[in-house]
Amino acid sequence: MTAALERVDTGRPAAPARGRSRARTRHRLTVLAFLAPAITGFVLFFGYPLVATVVFSFTRYDLINPPEFVGLANYLFMLDDPLFLTSIYNTLWLVVVVTISRVVFALGVASVIARLRSGVGLIRTLCYLPSLAPPVAATLVFFLVMRPNGGPLDTALGWFGLQGPLWFSDPDWAKPGLAVILLWVSGDLVIILLAAVLDVPQEQYEAAELDGAGALRRWWHITLPTISPVLLFGVVNSVIVALQLFTQAVVAGSAGSGAADVTGNTRNLGFPDNSTLTFPVWLYTQGFRYFDMGYAAAMATVLFVVSFAATAVLVQRMRRSSHQEEGGSGA
Amino acid sequence: MRLTSRAALLCVAAAVSLTACAAGASRSDRTGPAEAPAKDAAFTLTVWSNYSDRELAAVTEAMETFREIYPDVTIEHQGSQDDDKITAGIRSGNPPDLALSFTTDNIGQFCSSGAFQELKPYLERDRVDLSQISEAVRSYTEFKGNRCAMPMLTDVNGLYYNAAMVEAAGISAPPRTTSELLEQAKKLTRRAPDGSLEVVGFLPSMPYYQNRPQIWAPNFGADWFGPDGRSGLADSPGWQEMFRFQKELVDFYGHDALERFRAGLGQEYSPDHAFHQGKIAMMVDGEFRTAFIKAQAPQVRFGTAPFPVADSVADTYGTGLTSGTIMGIPKGSKNPGAAWELIKYLSLDTDVIVQMSNAIKNVPNTRAALEDPRLEVDEQFRTFVDMARSDDLEGSPVTPIGDAHLKVVSDFATSWQAGQVPDLVEGLRAVDRQIDDQIAKSGK
User: Cβ–Cβ of A261/B414 closer than 8 Å?
Assistant: First the structure.
């Protein structure tokens, strides 16, 4: 549109047009100068690695020698790689369970704290503190607490005649164990949701109360729609946390196999029975333990596309429902 | 819009070019060996290893004796550096002068990719006689004829048994065959009144502690590769014998009971190790365990012996796996000539080998050091020294795919011991396919 306007011969003297053009260029350069740090950071730390990953995904690359182009071979190998599917299953399981449980747990805790009249500061701090724990230390602590045959949890269950599961030694319980750890460190989300809950205008509650709405209806029709953008953030954040789960899975698998104090290749990644082999763990294994960075890059590309698509769908749906809500209330 | 597209295209082109440059920048070829430094030269050598604590101090002290040859050398020995960090150092163009790797799993990659420089020119120039190192140890420091590493001491795996438990059970001698191991394991097992396991005679769970396929394989005569160079587990009877032995023992304990018992055991290098705690009576482990037991559980009275062999290969008693720390000159090393001199010193000098062996209780890697009278050999350590002298040991399998083949077999073992594999041979064929696919994918 701008270009079309420039081409029109208005019959006016050329000098003011040139002046306008110069001013526009100057304005653009100024904008660009202000944006430069952000653009540089984006290109260097996001754009370049992203493009490099996609390029490497079409190559055979052992990290040392120049990559060789292999076309779609890495993508086709995924179809024959049984652990690729295992790692996808494990990660999807964690995405679903962790996202739901984390958001519900954080929202529940935030709603309770919002109603407290005293000791709010202390409880808020106690909720947030676990999220500051280093993931390795937190996982090891949980491993020791949940350890069968003498661990505190197992001992406590024993007082009631119950026998706890084997947690990180049982393929059926290892993923729930990881989910519990992630739940424990979701204090950051509790604080964010608490801020959102406290931000809901009180007069809306009062008006609804006068109309005879009960606590549940007030929560459903006022609290939930108001905090829905923050809730969306919580969902997206939880999906990403679960998609990227690496450290806790490696530490739990290593400790479960008696090799927490072993470094390097002798660690048993995925233990027990590949139940903790998440997508990022298998990607790391292929790239850095099997020296196949081309295949690892192909896996990373798949992960990026899936994460991007999942986030886009979530944002789209949330926006749509938010618009519907606004339209509904407007009517 | 057009501007945006151009900018995006420019970004992509720049990224692709940068990617190609970054990948290609690591190529630096050297022809011929680098000169050794002059005796009076002052220089610094950076050495990365994965040693820590007690072992790091002892090995650093041994390295310091290099000053007897080069009085003005400064050695900067950094511990806790695993293979990931070595690879990252090479890629970034800032590797150490000399790298020590704790695992032999990556030797195939290090040699085939050129991550470690070829040592043949140095060996030929200095006329190094490699026959002073056993064939098994030589085998795990090279890949397809390319020697890119030298050993620094070596590890030998054997049987450990709790002497008090063995005596109490009336067992007069350690088992020599897996049938005897099976019988003794059953005798040494103790159950609580509720049927749960209190003491396990021999823990067969794999992967756990040193129960790893590469460690068990030599004792069953199990071959990794067939004559055609392809994965050959299904066609090697040793693997079937190994897995049947394992399953028989698992079934004796009961899979669930064994899993519950195992889940409560301590970590491998902690004082809570099950053998230190008297929870397992026999196990397979490396010679270094003798030092760990004496340091962490001096109250445990224990004996050692070669690990039993399968009945079908009973005449190979005394064999076992040998592997250990390897040393190489990383691509991009700033002082390769001096690094080679230090490698030669640590790998072949009898005095320093004996000093290090006495300090960290690893087995010497040369025949001369194995016979040296200054070598401190107690009753338990003697087993491993005798095994190393025998020439009956086998090295780790060397592949260009890291430990991918080991994981595939370990995963299979997990499914097999849980009773999830209906047909052993078919299962092993699937293992072969996975290993072959992974190697084919590597293109090496």
Answer: no
Residue A119 Cα, gap to closest chain B Cα (Å): 39
Q: ipTM of the predicted structure?
A: 0.85
Q: What is the mean pLDDT of residues B185-194?
A: 96
pTM above 0.95, yes or no: no
Name beta bridge partners: B322. B156, B395
Q: How far is B42 from chain A (nearest CA, A)?
A: 31
Among A68, A172, A266, A271, most B C-beta atoms within 10 A, so best to mutate, is A266
Domain identity same for B56 and B96: yes
Q: How far apart are alpha carbons B111 and B149 in whole angstroms?
A: 8
- Please state, in angstroms and rounded to a whole number, the distance separating the CA atoms of residues A292 and A79: 16
Longest alpha-carbon distance in chain B = 88
CATH of A74-330, one of 3.40.50.10420, 3.40.50.720, 3.40.50.300, 1.10.3720.10: 1.10.3720.10
Query: Could you give the CA distance from residue B61 to residue B59 in angstroms, rounded to a whole number?
Result: 5
Which of A270, A304, A271 has its CA nearest to residue A284? A270
Q: How confident is the model at residue A324 (pLDDT cuts 50, 70, 90)?
A: low
Instruction: Please report which confidence band the pLDDT of residue B9 belongs to, taking 50, 70 and 90 as the band edges.
Output: low
Q: Which residue has the higher pLDDT, B148 or A115?
A: B148
Q: Which two tokens stand for residue A153?
A: 């949890």
Q: Is the separation of the CB atoms in B125 and B339 below 8 Å?
A: no
Domain count, chain B: 2
| CATH of residue B403 | 3.40.190.10
- For residue B200, list chain A residues with Cβ-Cβ distance below 8 A: none
The pLDDT tens digits for A11-21 are: 555 566 778 88
Among B363, B390, B417, which residue terminates a domain?
A: B390
Least Cα distance to B162 among B195, B185, B138 occurs for: B185
Residue span of the structural domain in which B193 resides = 156-320+398-442
Q: How far apart are CA A278 and CA A266, in angstroms?
A: 18
Number of C-beta neighbours around residue B163 at 10 A: 16
Indicate if the pLDDT at residue B27 is higher than 50: no
A77 near B CB under 8 A: yes
Residue B136, token pair as written in the block: 């098994």
Q: What is the mean pLDDT of residues B327-334?
A: 96
CA atoms within 13 A on the CB side of B409: 26
* Residues whose CB falls within 8 Å of the CB of residue B289, separated by 6 or more in sequence, listed in order: B160, B275
A201: preceding bond cis by omega (within 30 degrees): no
Pairing of strands B142-143, B394-395: unpaired
CB A227 within 8 A of CB A200: yes
Mean of pLDDT over chain A: 88
Q: Which pair of tokens denotes residue A247?
A: 């450290």
